[in-house]
Amino acid sequence: MILDRLLAFLQARQAGWLDVLDVLIVAFIIYELLQLIRGTHAVQMALGGVMLVFFYWISQWLNLQTVNWTLRTFLPYLVFGIIVVFQAEIRKMLAHIGKTPLLGAFSGERRTEVVDELVLAATSLAQSRTGAIVVLERDMGLRSYIETGIELDAVVTYDLLINIFNPGTPLHDGAAIVQGRRIAAAAAFLPLTVNPELSRQLGSRHRAAIGVTEDTDALAVVVSEETGQISLVQGGRIRRGLDGAQLRTALLEAMELPDEPAPRIEARADSGNRERAS
User: Fold this and answer.
1) Which of 23, 84, 212, 262 could be disulfide-bonded to 190 (CB atoms 3.0-4.6 Å)?
2) Torsion angle of alpha carbons 33, 34, 35, 39, nearest 10°?
3) Structural contact between residues 251 and 105, judged by C-beta atoms closer than 8 angstroms
């Protein structure tokens, strides 16, 4: 029945550019909504709502009167339930849609600034042998991991990263998660990898970094507390013993960002260490 109506509608009119524009706008809204809830517990709830709508169509197609009447009575209340449950996500989605066209052209430049601040902090932490793990979100959402930590929503800076992983602060034991240009959370818990082929020399930080990159497409930067080595983890694979320049190049390549002239990272890190020592 529904397919017959759809075919009749398509045959009754010819698609014009307004129809194409209409479909593109709807597709864009759905895409932004999926991007917003991806990686959160809201995905299961959204799938449940989709299944109810699917069963409603099936009940109409098979002429299941009782099932159709039950779903037809319940579905209007589902709309209000969605608004109540996803009010925070809906608000964030509208704000994201409103700012995307204006800021999209500058996202690459700003992400490069994030890389520079992260590399500077990593080299400084490596010199003082301070353990750290920073996870960079890419296409797959990390909301479920952010919820396990302390939410910050602060701009990524060298000073903030140094203070987060200072052993004397309550936020140092865990991961800092970066979304875009902001640190979304600190002291977040990550899943440990269960890969039996990994070296026993890798500690919990490295195993957590490998674990989160196995489950998602995120990048993880790890500073070893024992050796002071800097490692980059991507797709469950770890690259160890990187210096500041190598880490910056690897991050820019992984994030597909332009390789602009790098600041003097080592010099800035040394000056920062001298200021703290004084």
Assistant:
1) 212
2) 130
3) no
Residue ranges, comma separated, of all CATH 3.40.1700.10 domains in the chain are 106-277
Residue 262, pLDDT above cutoff 60: no
> Regarding predicted confidence, which is higher, 17 or 165?
165
Q: What pLDDT shows up at residue 278?
A: 44
Kindly give, in sequence order, each residue whose CB lies less than 8 Å from that of residue 180, ignoring residues fewer than 6 positions away: 107, 110, 111, 114, 137
- Token pair in block for residue 179: 């979304």
pLDDT tier at 232 (50, 70, 90 boundaries)?
very high
- Give CATH superfamily name and number for 106-277: DNA integrity scanning protein, DisA, N-terminal domain (3.40.1700.10)
Is the predicted pLDDT of residue 222 greater than 80, yes or no? yes
Average pLDDT, the chain: 78
Q: Which pLDDT score, from 0 to 100, does residue 199 have?
A: 74
Contacts of 23 (CB under 8 A, 6+ apart): none
pLDDT one-digit tens code per residue, 134-191: 999 987 788 889 989 999 989 999 999 999 999 988 888 899 999 988 999 999 999 8
